[in-house]
Design a protein that fits this description.
There is one protein chain. The chain is 75% helix and 0% strand. It has 81 residues and is an all-alpha fold. The longest helix has 23 residues, at 48-70.
C-alpha cells in the first residue's frame, strides 16, 4: 500500500515542518529516516550508485545530528572576525 518513496516524501514534509518550528534535532532525525526509506527504494530498483550516495548523505546527516546534540556548532553570525 505504501511504498518507501511515499513514506520518505511524507517524512520530508514532517521534517520541514519540524525545522520550521525550530526543532533542528528532531528534523534531522526525521530526514535520516526519510533517507533510509529512499535508500531502500533505490536498492530495490537496483540503483546501487544512488543507494551509495544516499548512504553517504545519511552519514553526513548523522554527523550533523551528533554535533547538534553535543552543542559544538559554531554559528557565523555570532563569531567575531
Amino acid at each position: 500500500m505504501f511504498d518507501p518513496g511515499m513514506i520518505g516524501g511524507i517524512l520530508l514534509n514532517l521534517g520541514a515542518l519540524a525545522l520550521y518550528y525550530g526543532r533542528l534535532q528532531l528534523s534531522v532525525l526525521i530526514y535520516l529516516v526519510a533517507d533510509a526509506m529512499w535508500a531502500c527504494l533505490a536498492y530495490s530498483h537496483n540503483e546501487y550508485i544512488g543507494t551509495g550516495l544516499i548512504l553517504i548523505g545519511m552519514f553526513v546527516g548523522m554527523a550533523v545530528y551528533y554535533k547538534s546534540r553535543l552543542g559544538i556548532f559554531v554559528n557565523n553570525l555570532y563569531t567575531k572576525k
